[in-house]
Amino acid sequence: MTSTATTTEGKKARPAKRDPEGVRRDILAVAMEEFSQNGLSGARIDEIAARTKTSKRMIYYYFGDKEGLYQHVLEEAYSKVRGGESDLALDHLDPMAALDALCRYTFEHHRRSPAFIRMVMIENIHHGRHVQMSKSIRSLNRPAIAALEAVLKRGQDSGVFREGIEALELHWQISALSFFNVSNAPTFSSIFGEDLFTPQAQQTLARHVAVMVLRYVVRPEHIDAIGSDER
């Protein structure tokens, strides 16, 4: 918000300039809410401008047009999830602990970021067109598969993980288990009730997702090392 100060002589000073990067972050944050709630066609640039106390002209200056803003929001959303994965420092954990941490992180990130899930659902309605046009999204996601490949290789080299498991397929499975929990929560809870969506039940689901994945990956003779799914 611009502010106008008054000098001791009663003259108004010039409005304080806003930090360009801060303005850009504000626009992206509000645009995420607008696009995730209303989709690409239903989102209104006027609403984003009003909520960020900017103008349509400024938004277009930063992002080109409405589709450009939408694509930047997608890129920012993917950047956050992949950045969180990097912060896990999986290469410093033993393979089983690393895979457990990745599963729980993915589940928790998606649970706490429903706007991200809605954005992905909206982009799928558009047949992934904006993801295909974005070089940054592709470059952000390649390291995620490479990191999972490294975890699998360390586990296989140590004889703990089974051979023949593809990192891309395992990534798909982890994502699917975590994504459904958010994408289908409204219909699932309407049909079956809210029992699985209490904070405690969600923690249990996150733990069980990790155990399911580990039991799929770990060699039979090492299953006992996973421990109880109640830990």
Automatic annotation (TrEMBL):
The keyword DNA-binding applies. PROSITE patterns: HTH_TETR_2. Residues 1-20 are annotated as: Disordered. Residues 44-63 bind DNA. Residues 21-81 form the HTH tetR-type domain. The keyword DNA-binding applies. Residues 9-20 have a biased composition (Basic and acidic residues). It holds the Pfam family TetR_N. InterPro entries: Homeodomain-like_sf, HTH-type_TetR-like_transc_reg, HTH_TetR, NicS_C, Tet_transcr_reg_TetR-rel_C_sf. Keywords: DNA-binding. This is TetR/AcrR family transcriptional regulator. It comes from Agrobacterium cavarae. The lineage of its organism: Bacteria, Pseudomonadati, Pseudomonadota, Alphaproteobacteria, Hyphomicrobiales.
